[in-house]
Amino acid sequence: MPNLGLSNTICLKHLVDADRDYPIVRVFATAGWGVAGWVVSFAFKAEPEATQFYVAGVAAAVVGVYSFFLPSTPPPAVGKSLRIGELYGADTFRYFKHWSFAVFMFASLLACIGMMPYWSLGSPFANTVGIKRSGAFFTMGQIAELFVLALILPMFVKRFGIK
Predict the structure, then answer these.
(1) Can you tell me whether residue 41 is helix, strand or coil?
(2) Domain locations in the chain?
(3) Which of 6, 13, 88, 139 has its CB 3.0 to 4.6 Å from that of 34, i.e. a possible disulfide?
(4) Closest Cα partner for 143 from 52, 27, 42, 41?
């Protein structure tokens, strides 16, 4: 699992113009997630079987090999001494003094609690109620997100800016 986060971080670190390029990368990442759901559903018909895990394992191995060809990117804190509090994010506790941050984090926690059953049980439930290609069915979320990211969000950012 760590290879995906690390390779994403390295790739994003090397964007020439992050303000310009990140939205494009974000849209294609969402599209890629949707394509992966369609591949699992239609190419492998793998929702009720372990095949989906083999597909994920091969994809992870490909990303792992790809990571060896990424540019050299030393960690930003190379050469600095490590404090124990940095390991568990102690520096972030001060942000909880700000009401907006505390509400955001609490709402994020509640959202994550609600998403856990969705991620782990959504596909088996959909298969039980008769949705045969649940991997593709659940890509409706990515399709909606693409619509928002590509069409609606730019209008709001232009009108209201980023807050």
Answers:
(1) helix
(2) 1-73+134-163, 94-132
(3) 139
(4) 27
